[in-house]
Amino acid sequence: EHEDQLPRRRGMGMERRLHAFLTEQRRVYVGGALSENRRLMLLRLPGLRQRFEAWDVPRLRRVAGLVEALKQWVATHGGRLPRHYGGVTERAPLERRLAKFIANQQIERRAGRLTEERRAQLEAVPGMRERLLEL
Q: How far apart are CA 79 and CA 81, in angstroms?
């Protein structure tokens, strides 16, 4: 029914429970405590191999990749930053992901947790200096 689509957090009933289960498996795996037997069983599920590969990428490399993707997005969309909403109910997955990344960076800045290095990386993206200062 879901054709290789993993359960979503905003799903209903069983889908939400499956998402919670996979979130816990990720936490255990990243923490180094997932048994090899459990890992092999999970790898049999469609889409999980790619998910495990993503979990193996260190957080700093993921952020650097998102900043680079954001630069490319802006360059190919006439200088426009990705939008999360803006009256349009459906966005491409990459635009949604990048818009969420921007929103998370704004939260980090407001909380005083945005490092100078991260701020400099983000401000190298056209339009991000202003976006970071938005409330």
A: 7
**Spatial CA neighbour of 96 closest among 123, 66, 68:** 66
Residue with more model confidence, 100 or 10 = 100
The helix or strand, by DSSP H or E, that contains position 95, with its residue range, turns out to be helix 93-110
What would the pLDDT profile of 78-114 be if each residue is shown by its tens digit?
999 998 765 555 667 888 889 989 999 999 999 998 9
d(CA 122, CA 105): 9
Given CA atoms 116, 97, 28, 109 in this order, what sign does their dihedral have? positive
Whether 47 contacts 6, CB under 8 Å: yes
> Which pTM value belongs to this model?
0.61
HSE-CB at 104 with a 13 A cutoff on CA atoms is 10
The structure tokens listed for 124 are: 């190298």
Record the tokens describing residue 103, joined without a space. Answer: 């929103």
For the stretch 23-48, pLDDT in tens is: 899 888 887 898 999 999 999 988 88
Q: Which amino acid is at 73?
A: W
